[in-house]
Write a structure and sequence with these properties.
This protein has one domain (about 1-10, about 15-155). About 80% of the residues lie in helices and about 0% in strands. The protein has 5 helices and 2 strands, in the order ααααββα. The termini are far apart.
Length: about 160
């Protein structure tokens, strides 16, 4: 029963910080996503005006821009990737509990394991943003697709190429 109490306290703690986290992460997504599109657009402008001369100024400026772009991506998606890792660990826990249940000989221990499995299944540790957007590995891909789509729209509207 101690394991159930520990898991319950972890899930309760996550539930307690969910509302402030949702607000802060939503604001971060809304602010950083257009910044990613703008950074890519400015990189395209710099690349278009590049005259072919290989100089240290151009390369260092371009590398710094790429580093800022990667930093924005990391800031934006570390919570989503961490949430995906937590959900994966809960699934691994359920698998191990199922395997342990198959090997258990004592009926008391088996009942406790079944209770723990049912509790973890009822309260999985999966985070969502406002109960709409699932925070896992698919969020960075979705935001990247959104940025690419809007980058294409911006390039077409500005007649850059």
């Amino acid at each position: 029963m101690e394991c159930i109490d520990i898991y319950k306290s972890i899930v309760d703690t996550v539930d307690n910080v969910k509302t402030p986290f949702d607000i802060l992460y939503a604001v971060t997504l809304v602010n950083f996503t257009p910044n990613l599109v703008l950074s890519a657009y400015l990189g395209l402008i710099k690349l278009k005006t590049y005259n072919g001369d290989v100089n240290i100024g151009f390369l260092s400026g371009y590398m710094i821009r790429i580093m800022y772009y990667l930093q924005d991506f990391a800031i934006l998606f570390v919570p989503a990737i961490s949430s995906g890792l937590m959900a994966h660990q809960v699934k691994e826990l359920l698998n191990r509990l199922q395997n342990r249940l198959l090997q258990e000989r004592s009926e008391d221990h088996a009942a406790t394991i079944e209770l723990f499995i049912s509790y973890v299944s009822a309260r999985p540790l999966e985070l969502t943003l406002y109960d709409v957007i699932k925070l896992d590995w698919s969020l960075p891909i979705a935001i990247f697709n959104l940025c690419v789509t809007y980058q294409i729209v911006v390039v077409q509207l500005t007649h850059m190429y």
